[in-house]
Design brief:
Helices cover about 35% and strands about 30% of the residues. It is built from 22 helices and 27 strands. Strands 13-12-11-16-15-14 form a six-stranded antiparallel sheet, sandwiched between helices. A six-stranded antiparallel sheet has the order 24-23-22-27-26-25. Strands 2-1-5-4-3 form a five-stranded antiparallel sheet.
């Protein structure tokens, strides 16, 4: 009888995903299994380690089938204990959801084996009785008549309806029919009718409750063909209360509808990337916008192979999934996605990563947003910052930047060619024919230079009447001379000095190098060659050599006029477009502008939900900033909004803040300011943030270029904010 006193019931928990890891177990389960805790941890880790191999597939299939309809399971299988013998057990399971969203299945395991044959029936009946009263589901036996008359039920069956056994018998005379919700009665009756043929039913319906309106239950019924009562078949019922699950499904459905509505009225498309299944799921809006399905397995291969991603942004697109697999908490990128019209448009994608309790990535949840208009505006701003307004060529600052970059990369065996081109006697052309003709000459020369420059080279206007052409990867310097001849010949044809048109000639200096060389050195060589061309009578070209005297060219190179600092703007855009998260890029760009232009302070404040206050979200402070406390982190929106009333452009500047007569200006964050500029960020016509530029010095006055640079920088920031 020793076996009868050993543990007959235990509990264990598994992760309900293949390979069904055993996560926890109690002492009673260890005693039942005849394992030490050390052996269990070392050799018994998966469900397949304890279930008889002939029962394992049957059990997993049964679990999936039952859990698809309720959160309870009931099975009888054989387990392999520590003595390597198999024993029958009853498994009663229930699904639980952990805090991290993971689902686990908790089992109560009851040993159905006996050791002494003479007591077999008694022990089996005793174990089954204990089991039937311990499970959290209604177990009952019914006659399949017009009343579904109850023959037997466990205690939980009566609890489902809120009645005691006596109340149930006296009030309903053991009939189940009166307790079925009227709207669902036909479903139950029809199902019980089909039970006589199919021998099994699985349905969900509502039952009446003593103190509540109704409860949702899931019924699994099986007929017993060999048993009859007064000619009617007998059926076993398993009733699970799924009211909470049903309400959760309803709430989830409502949330999903709300989710889709929010998606429809916004500019963003939410998505979820399941790392384990390599599946990305977009909201329904994706299907409407792009005309293709919103769920994709293995999206990297499918999107690229189908040509949905522009070739120049494929690496950015791959980076989304690689970052998720690496476990990056947040990742943002931009790539060009093909629309349903066949063209490519810029899209911004960002996600947040969800991990399991072992810090392993589970899924990425994010949004996809069309930023094509914004990117085109940025490209236009960048082009404006880099090009000459009259000719469309690179301006002086950008030409210098590009040339310095190219000179560092020159490799032995190939020449980099710099051609300085000066218009001969251009002042006389302006004085004689007028500035309109002078501008026409400038534009025509720019067109000729671009026409005869290879795709790898570039052309810049570096002065009022001076140009620079760079030719890379040239094997023979004579090619540069041929180019110069073409420039001159084409211009002679265009401006021969007849029929009221001026005669236009060029002096061209050519310098070449096949090794990396400082910018100043090659420009000095090209200057000397231009000067020699002038001495040679103009309207010619000279290839620099060491015999040419390096005298400084008399026509001093003049800067193209602009109202902002193009290098600052160009570098700021490059920083904002770095392959990093947007917040980091914005902060780095603000720091760069502040340091480069020597500003005391730049700060951005964004509206809170109630729009009465603004939070400081980005800030740059120079070493000379006089206030160690950083001023306020939170301030009334009224201060910014008052200043905003003084402008219709969204930007306000004052070099004399004492003259600003507003109730709230000069207080808090604005106290001590000598010169100040404010710009607001708007979206769909509504302000969502402000940026402020602050000077606290009496001696510093911002130049026009500095102020215009602030304005252009603020405009660029809007899209990123």
């Amino acid at each position: 009888m020793s076996n009868l006193t050993s543990s007959k019931t235990g509990a264990f928990v598994i992760d309900f995903h293949d390979p069904f890891l055993i996560l926890e177990y109690d002492k009673h389960f260890l005693d039942m299994m005849k394992y030490s805790i050390q052996t269990m941890r070392k050799h018994v880790t998966n469900l397949s380690d304890i279930i008889h191999e002939d029962d394992y597939n049957k059990l997993t299939t049964s679990l999936s089938h039952q859990l698809a309809r309720s959160n309870h399971t009931f099975d009888q299988v054989r387990i392999i204990k520590g003595d390597q013998k198999s024993y029958p057990v009853l498994l009663n399971g229930q699904v639980y959801t952990l805090d991290d969203g993971r689902e686990v299945l908790s089992f109560t395991c009851t040993d159905a084996s006996v050791s002494e044959p003479s007591d077999a029936i008694q022990h089996n009946v005793s174990d089954l009785e204990r089991f039937s009263q311990s499970v959290r589901c209604g177990l009952s036996k019914h006659i399949c008549d017009n009343s579904l008359t109850l023959i037997w039920a466990n205690d939980y069956y009566y609890k489902l309806f809120g009645y005691t056994k006596t109340e149930y018998e006296e009030t309903f005379e053991n009939s189940l029919i009166p307790l079925i919700y009227p709207e669902d009665l036909s479903l139950v009756v029809n199902s019980i009718t089909s039970l006589l043929e199919d021998h099994k039913v699985d349905i969900t319906f509502r039952i009446k409750h003593k103190s509540q309106n109704f409860r949702w239950v899931n019924l699994i019924a099986a007929s017993i063909s060999s048993e009859k009562y007064d000619g009617f078949p007998i059926a076993n019922f398993v009733l699970n209360d799924i009211t909470d699950l049903k309400y959760a499904e309803m709430r989830a459905s409502l949330e999903a509808q709300k989710y889709e509505i929010i998606s429809d009225i916004s500019d963003e498309i939410p998505f979820e990337y399941e790392i384990h299944t390599v599946t990305i799921t977009y909201s329904k809006k994706y299907d409407d916008i792009f005309g293709r399905k919103s769920i994709h397995r293995h999206p990297i291969e499918k999107f690229i192979n189908a040509g949905l991603i522009s070739e120049d942004t494929i690496d950015n697109f791959k980076g989304i999934y690689e970052a998720a697999i690496r476990g990056e908490a947040i990742h943002s990128t931009e790539y060009k996605l093909r629309t349903k019209h066949g063209d490519y448009e810029w899209h911004y994608s960002t996600f947040s990563l969800i991990k399991d309790e072992h810090d392993k990535p589970l899924r990425a949840v994010g949004i996809l947003r069309n930023i094509d208009a914004q990117k085109k505006e940025q490209e236009a701003l960048l082009k404006r910052a880099q090009t000459d307004a009259v000719t469309g060529l690179l301006n002086k600052a950008t030409t210098e930047t590009f040339l310095k970059q190219r000179l560092k990369k020159i490799q032995s065996g190939e020449y980099g060619i710099v051609m300085l081109i000066d218009i001969d006697d251009f002042k006389n052309i302006n004085d004689t024919y007028g500035h309109l003709t002078g501008d026409e000459v400038i534009v025509d020369i720019a067109h000729i230079l671009k026409q005869y420059t290879s795709n790898d080279g570039f052309v810049g206007r570096i002065g009022g009447d001076e140009f620079l052409v760079y030719l890379p990867n040239i094997l023979d310097k004579t090619l540069a001379c041929e180019k110069a001849e073409k420039f001159v010949s084409k211009l002679h044809t265009k401006y021969p000095g007849e029929e009221g048109k001026p005669k236009v000639t060029l002096s061209i200096g050519i310098a070449a190098t096949d090794v990396p060389i400082p910018y100043s050195d090659i420009m000095e060589q090209a200057d000397a060659a231009v000067y020699q061309a002038k001495l040679n009578g103009k309207d010619c070209y000279v290839l620099y050599n060491d015999a040419i005297e390096r005298s400084e060219y008399h026509n001093e190179r003049r800067s193209n006029m602009c109202n902002f600092d193009p290098i600052v703007i160009s570098n700021a855009i490059n920083i904002l477009s770095e392959d990093s998260d947007t917040i980091t890029c914005i902060q780095k760009a603000i720091n760069y502008v502040g340091e480069t232009l020597d500003i005391d302070r730049i700060a951005i404040w964004e509206y809170q939900n109630n729009r009465n206050f603004l939070d400081k979200t980005f800030e740059y402070q120079s070493p000379s900033y006089p206030y160690a406390d950083g001023r306020t982190e939170n301030l009334s929106a009224m201060q910014w909004e008052e200043v905003d009333t003084m402008t219709i452009t969204g930007t306000y500047h004052s070099a004399n803040t004492k003259a600003i007569k507003l109730n709230n200006f000069g207080k808090g964050s604005f106290s001590g300011v000598k010169e100040f500029m404010q710009s607001k960020f708007t979206y769909n016509g509504s302000a969502f943030a402000y940026i402020g530029y602050f000077s606290y010095s009496d001696d510093t006055v911002w130049s026009t270029n500095t102020i215009e640079t602030f304005k252009l920088f603020s405009s660029i920031l809007t899209g990123y904010m």
